[in-house]
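Subject: sequence -> structure tokens, single chain

Hey, anyone have a minute? Need the predicted structure for the following. Not urgent.
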Amino acid sequence: MLWQCPKLLVSQQFILHLKNSMKKVVILFLLVLTTKGHSQFAKNMFSKDPIINLENWQKQRIYFGYYLGFNSFDFKFDYKTPVQQDIQVKKTTGFNVGVVADLRLQEYINLRFEPGLYYTKRDLYFPGISNKETDYLREVNSTYIHFPLLLKFSALRTGNIRPYLVGGMSTTLNLSSNAKSQDDNFEQKFRVKQWTAAYELGLGIDIFTEYFIFSPSVRGMFGITDELIRDKTPDSPWTGNIDSMKSRAILINFTFH
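Reply:
Had a minute. Here:
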């Protein structure tokens, strides 16, 4: 197994570098957006008679875009029997990147497909097992290919601002699931299923600039399928008492059309 260590190290360093680079890009863009031409931007957006930008853009039958963003994933545990202490989840901030295809169904309703790559990390702390870190701690690194199909319900456009609600279903492929591994927690290997499903609800706002539409949004993602693969031993101290384990997440995306 030693030959795999350098590859794993390079992969983790690359993901960390990509995550930091994306944060810098998003922060830099927001700074430019809020500082460059601030007075002109405010005049176009919030004056009594603003200049209407991209007036006919959203009348197109179909249009495309891309998004960058951040996420915070959690796990929701249900137990077979009551427990004194829950499994603790330490969350981190991950990143999202993907594309958007938007199909106009009617004036206020659009169908959106937003496939993307999501990376996140969660640390699980299992109480009452032992004082050894290799026993009570499980690091869950997840690289997801995310496939959400959503309905977007837009409000009436006011000047260059148009708020909206969004909701729908998603399915996710976990590239780091360890689902095919024959080892389990007794060999320090935490396993989850490759495919999961969820429903998503959120809100956002379309801001029409002179050259593009900028759409910040926030969504909640709520898993509906149990994604835990149990250990081979039925009374395993890690998985034996878990009835279900489902992902939950907050997704913050900055979309550009």
